[in-house]
Protein backbone atom coordinates (compact mmCIF):
# COMPACT_ATOMS: atom_id res chain seq x y z
CA UNK A 1 0.00 0.00 0.00
CA UNK A 2 2.78 2.44 0.93
CA UNK A 3 4.87 2.00 -2.25
CA UNK A 4 1.72 2.36 -4.35
CA UNK A 5 0.62 5.57 -2.64
CA UNK A 6 4.11 7.11 -2.81
CA UNK A 7 4.55 6.10 -6.45
CA UNK A 8 1.19 7.65 -7.34
CA UNK A 9 2.21 10.92 -5.71
CA UNK A 10 5.60 10.89 -7.44
CA UNK A 11 3.97 10.35 -10.83
CA UNK A 12 1.57 13.27 -10.26
CA UNK A 13 4.31 15.52 -8.88
CA UNK A 14 6.79 14.93 -11.69
CA UNK A 15 4.08 15.24 -14.34
CA UNK A 16 3.25 18.65 -12.89
CA UNK A 17 6.93 19.56 -12.72
CA UNK A 18 7.40 18.43 -16.31
CA UNK A 19 4.47 20.58 -17.42
CA UNK A 20 5.94 23.58 -15.60
CA UNK A 21 9.32 23.06 -17.28
CA UNK A 22 7.62 22.62 -20.64
CA UNK A 23 5.99 26.02 -20.19
CA UNK A 24 9.37 27.50 -19.21
CA UNK A 25 11.26 26.20 -22.22
CA UNK A 26 8.31 26.53 -24.61
CA UNK A 27 7.94 30.25 -23.90
CA UNK A 28 11.67 30.82 -23.21
CA UNK A 29 10.99 32.11 -19.68
CA UNK A 30 13.92 33.18 -17.54
CA UNK A 31 15.13 31.23 -14.52
CA UNK A 32 13.82 34.05 -12.32
CA UNK A 33 10.25 33.25 -13.42
CA UNK A 34 10.53 29.44 -13.49
CA UNK A 35 13.79 27.83 -12.33
CA UNK A 36 15.56 25.27 -14.45
CA UNK A 37 16.37 21.70 -13.47
CA UNK A 38 19.86 22.61 -12.26
CA UNK A 39 18.50 25.42 -10.05
CA UNK A 40 15.90 23.09 -8.54
CA UNK A 41 18.57 20.47 -7.76
CA UNK A 42 20.87 23.03 -6.16
CA UNK A 43 18.07 24.49 -4.08
CA UNK A 44 16.92 21.03 -2.98
CA UNK A 45 20.45 20.18 -1.81
CA UNK A 46 20.70 23.49 0.07
CA UNK A 47 17.35 23.49 1.90
CA UNK A 48 16.37 19.82 2.11
CA UNK A 49 17.43 19.28 5.72
CA UNK A 50 15.81 22.49 6.96
CA UNK A 51 12.60 21.85 5.04
CA UNK A 52 12.50 18.24 6.23
CA UNK A 53 12.53 19.41 9.87
CA UNK A 54 9.88 22.00 9.04
CA UNK A 55 7.53 19.51 7.38
CA UNK A 56 7.94 17.06 10.29
CA UNK A 57 6.99 19.91 12.62
CA UNK A 58 3.93 20.62 10.47
CA UNK A 59 2.98 16.94 10.33
CA UNK A 60 3.13 16.63 14.11
CA UNK A 61 0.79 19.61 14.53
CA UNK A 62 -1.51 18.26 11.80
CA UNK A 63 -1.81 14.86 13.51
CA UNK A 64 -2.67 16.42 16.89
CA UNK A 65 -5.06 18.89 15.24
CA UNK A 66 -6.71 16.01 13.39
CA UNK A 67 -7.23 14.11 16.63
CA UNK A 68 -8.63 17.27 18.21
CA UNK A 69 -11.05 17.69 15.30
CA UNK A 70 -12.19 14.06 15.60
CA UNK A 71 -12.87 14.61 19.30
CA UNK A 72 -14.75 17.86 18.65
CA UNK A 73 -16.86 16.31 15.89
CA UNK A 74 -17.65 13.25 18.02
CA UNK A 75 -18.81 15.30 20.99
CA UNK A 76 -20.93 17.68 18.88
CA UNK A 77 -22.44 14.80 16.89
CA UNK A 78 -23.39 12.86 20.03
CA UNK A 79 -24.82 15.89 21.83
CA UNK A 80 -26.59 17.14 18.70
CA UNK A 81 -27.86 13.69 17.77
CA UNK A 82 -31.36 13.91 19.33
CA UNK A 83 -34.01 15.62 17.22
CA UNK A 84 -34.97 18.14 19.91
CA UNK A 85 -34.40 21.83 20.64
CA UNK A 86 -30.94 21.39 22.16
CA UNK A 87 -29.75 19.08 19.39
CA UNK A 88 -31.06 21.41 16.68
CA UNK A 89 -29.43 24.46 18.28
CA UNK A 90 -26.07 22.71 18.58
CA UNK A 91 -26.13 21.60 14.95
CA UNK A 92 -27.21 25.06 13.79
CA UNK A 93 -24.39 26.71 15.75
CA UNK A 94 -21.85 24.23 14.34
CA UNK A 95 -23.04 24.86 10.78
CA UNK A 96 -23.05 28.65 11.15
CA UNK A 97 -19.54 28.74 12.57
CA UNK A 98 -18.31 27.01 9.43
CA UNK A 99 -19.72 29.85 7.31
CA UNK A 100 -16.95 32.19 8.50
CA UNK A 101 -13.82 31.93 6.30
CA UNK A 102 -10.70 30.88 8.15
CA UNK A 103 -8.77 33.90 6.83
CA UNK A 104 -11.23 36.09 8.73
CA UNK A 105 -11.15 34.02 11.93
CA UNK A 106 -7.40 33.29 11.98
CA UNK A 107 -6.27 36.83 12.91
CA UNK A 108 -8.56 36.76 15.94
CA UNK A 109 -7.11 33.38 16.96
CA UNK A 110 -3.55 34.66 16.60
CA UNK A 111 -4.39 37.78 18.65
CA UNK A 112 -5.90 35.69 21.46
CA UNK A 113 -3.49 32.74 21.46
CA UNK A 114 -0.35 34.15 19.87
CA UNK A 115 1.56 32.70 16.91
CA UNK A 116 2.63 29.47 18.59
CA UNK A 117 1.39 25.89 18.78
CA UNK A 118 -2.14 26.51 20.19
CA UNK A 119 -3.14 28.72 17.24
CA UNK A 120 -1.83 26.23 14.69
CA UNK A 121 -3.64 23.35 16.39
CA UNK A 122 -6.94 25.22 16.60
CA UNK A 123 -6.90 26.36 12.97
CA UNK A 124 -5.99 22.86 11.76
CA UNK A 125 -8.85 21.40 13.80
CA UNK A 126 -11.36 24.00 12.61
CA UNK A 127 -10.61 23.38 8.95
CA UNK A 128 -10.93 19.59 9.05
CA UNK A 129 -13.62 19.09 11.69
CA UNK A 130 -16.66 20.14 9.61
CA UNK A 131 -16.65 17.22 7.11
CA UNK A 132 -16.11 14.94 10.10
CA UNK A 133 -19.07 16.51 11.87
CA UNK A 134 -21.39 16.12 8.87
CA UNK A 135 -20.53 12.45 8.49
CA UNK A 136 -20.71 11.70 12.21
CA UNK A 137 -24.12 13.38 12.52
CA UNK A 138 -25.39 11.52 9.46
CA UNK A 139 -24.23 8.18 10.88
CA UNK A 140 -25.36 8.71 14.47
CA UNK A 141 -28.82 9.95 13.49
CA UNK A 142 -29.52 7.01 11.17
CA UNK A 143 -31.25 4.17 13.07
CA UNK A 144 -30.16 0.56 12.60
CA UNK A 145 -33.67 -0.82 12.95
CA UNK A 146 -32.73 -4.50 12.67
CA UNK A 147 -30.59 -4.28 15.81
CA UNK A 148 -32.05 -1.38 17.77
CA UNK A 149 -35.60 -2.76 17.73
CA UNK A 150 -34.74 -5.53 20.20
CA UNK A 151 -33.20 -3.15 22.75
CA UNK A 152 -36.04 -0.65 22.40
CA UNK A 153 -38.71 -3.32 22.94
CA UNK A 154 -36.90 -4.79 25.96
CA UNK A 155 -36.30 -1.33 27.45
CA UNK A 156 -32.51 -1.76 27.44
CA UNK A 157 -31.74 0.97 24.94
CA UNK A 158 -29.48 3.74 26.26
CA UNK A 159 -27.84 6.54 24.32
CA UNK A 160 -24.40 4.98 24.81
CA UNK A 161 -25.61 1.70 23.32
CA UNK A 162 -27.36 3.50 20.47
CA UNK A 163 -24.18 5.37 19.57
CA UNK A 164 -22.12 2.19 19.77
CA UNK A 165 -24.51 0.24 17.52
CA UNK A 166 -24.65 2.94 14.86
CA UNK A 167 -20.91 3.52 14.90
CA UNK A 168 -20.19 -0.22 14.70
CA UNK A 169 -22.56 -0.75 11.78
CA UNK A 170 -21.01 2.16 9.88
CA UNK A 171 -17.38 1.63 10.83
CA UNK A 172 -16.28 1.56 7.18
CA UNK A 173 -17.82 4.99 6.55
CA UNK A 174 -16.26 6.37 9.73
CA UNK A 175 -12.80 5.16 8.79
CA UNK A 176 -13.15 6.54 5.26
CA UNK A 177 -14.14 10.02 6.40
CA UNK A 178 -11.48 10.12 9.13
CA UNK A 179 -8.81 9.15 6.60
CA UNK A 180 -10.09 11.64 4.04
CA UNK A 181 -10.10 14.51 6.54
CA UNK A 182 -6.41 13.96 7.32
CA UNK A 183 -5.43 15.94 4.23
CA UNK A 184 -7.55 18.85 5.45
CA UNK A 185 -5.71 18.75 8.77
CA UNK A 186 -2.41 19.07 6.90
CA UNK A 187 -3.82 21.90 4.79
CA UNK A 188 -5.17 23.66 7.88
CA UNK A 189 -1.80 23.52 9.61
CA UNK A 190 0.01 24.89 6.56
CA UNK A 191 -2.57 27.69 6.23
CA UNK A 192 -2.10 28.60 9.90
CA UNK A 193 1.68 28.67 9.48
CA UNK A 194 1.40 30.67 6.28
CA UNK A 195 -0.87 33.30 7.83
CA UNK A 196 0.95 34.08 11.03
CA UNK A 197 3.10 31.34 12.57
CA UNK A 198 6.89 31.44 12.86
CA UNK A 199 7.69 27.79 12.21
CA UNK A 200 6.65 24.83 10.06
CA UNK A 201 6.65 24.27 6.32
CA UNK A 202 3.87 26.83 5.83
CA UNK A 203 6.14 29.50 7.28
CA UNK A 204 8.94 28.34 4.97
CA UNK A 205 6.55 28.57 2.01
CA UNK A 206 5.62 32.12 2.98
CA UNK A 207 9.28 33.16 3.08
CA UNK A 208 9.96 31.45 -0.27
CA UNK A 209 7.03 33.24 -1.91
CA UNK A 210 8.14 36.59 -0.51
CA UNK A 211 11.53 35.90 -2.08
CA UNK A 212 9.87 34.77 -5.35
CA UNK A 213 11.92 31.57 -5.08
CA UNK A 214 9.85 29.00 -6.95
CA UNK A 215 12.54 26.34 -6.55
CA UNK A 216 12.09 26.41 -2.77
CA UNK A 217 8.32 26.22 -3.23
CA UNK A 218 8.71 23.11 -5.40
CA UNK A 219 10.93 21.44 -2.80
CA UNK A 220 8.43 22.25 -0.06
CA UNK A 221 5.53 20.89 -2.12
CA UNK A 222 7.45 17.68 -2.75
CA UNK A 223 8.04 17.08 0.97
CA UNK A 224 4.45 18.00 1.87
CA UNK A 225 3.13 15.46 -0.65
CA UNK A 226 5.44 12.68 0.54
CA UNK A 227 4.61 13.05 4.22
CA UNK A 228 0.92 13.58 3.60
CA UNK A 229 0.92 10.30 1.68
CA UNK A 230 2.70 8.58 4.58
CA UNK A 231 0.10 9.87 7.03
CA UNK A 232 -2.80 8.74 4.85
CA UNK A 233 -1.31 5.26 4.46
CA UNK A 234 -0.83 5.03 8.23
CA UNK A 235 -4.50 5.88 8.79
CA UNK A 236 -5.64 3.39 6.15
CA UNK A 237 -3.60 0.62 7.76
CA UNK A 238 -4.97 1.53 11.18
CA UNK A 239 -8.49 1.47 9.73
CA UNK A 240 -7.94 -1.99 8.24
CA UNK A 241 -6.66 -3.22 11.59
CA UNK A 242 -9.71 -1.83 13.41
CA UNK A 243 -12.10 -3.37 10.88
CA UNK A 244 -10.44 -6.78 11.15
CA UNK A 245 -10.40 -6.58 14.95
CA UNK A 246 -14.08 -5.65 15.11
CA UNK A 247 -14.91 -8.38 12.60
CA UNK A 248 -13.19 -10.96 14.81
CA UNK A 249 -15.02 -9.72 17.90
CA UNK A 250 -18.33 -9.86 16.07
CA UNK A 251 -17.76 -13.46 14.99
CA UNK A 252 -16.80 -14.44 18.54
CA UNK A 253 -20.07 -13.04 19.91
CA UNK A 254 -22.24 -14.83 17.36
**CATH first level: which class?**
Mainly Alpha
Cα radius of gyration in angstroms: 22 Å
Poorly predicted tracts of residues:
none
Strand content: under 5%
Number of domains: 1
Helix-and-strand structural type: mainly alpha
Give a written overview of the molecule.
This protein is mainly alpha-helical. The chain has a single domain, classed as Orthogonal Bundle (MetI-like fold), CATH 1.10.3720. Helices cover 84% and strands 0% of the residues. The chain is built from 10 helices and no strands. The longest helix is centred in the first third of the chain and has 43 residues. The mean pLDDT is 86.
Main features:
mainly alpha; 254 residues; single chain
What is the topology?
Elements: H1 2-26, H2 37-79, H3 85-98, H4 102-113, H5 117-140, H6 145-153, H7 159-169, H8 171-195, H9 201-210, H10 214-253
Helix pairs in contact: 1-10, 2-5, 2-8, 2-10, 4-5, 5-8, 8-9, 8-10, 9-10
Amino acid sequence: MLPKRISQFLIIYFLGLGLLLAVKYGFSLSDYVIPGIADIQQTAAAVFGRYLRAVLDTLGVAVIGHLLAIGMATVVAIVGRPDNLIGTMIKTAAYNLQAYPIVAVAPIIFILLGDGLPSRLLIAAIICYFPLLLSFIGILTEPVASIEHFYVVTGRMRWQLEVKIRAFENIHKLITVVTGSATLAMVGTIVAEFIGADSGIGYSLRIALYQSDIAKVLVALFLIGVFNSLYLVSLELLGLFIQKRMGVEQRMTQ
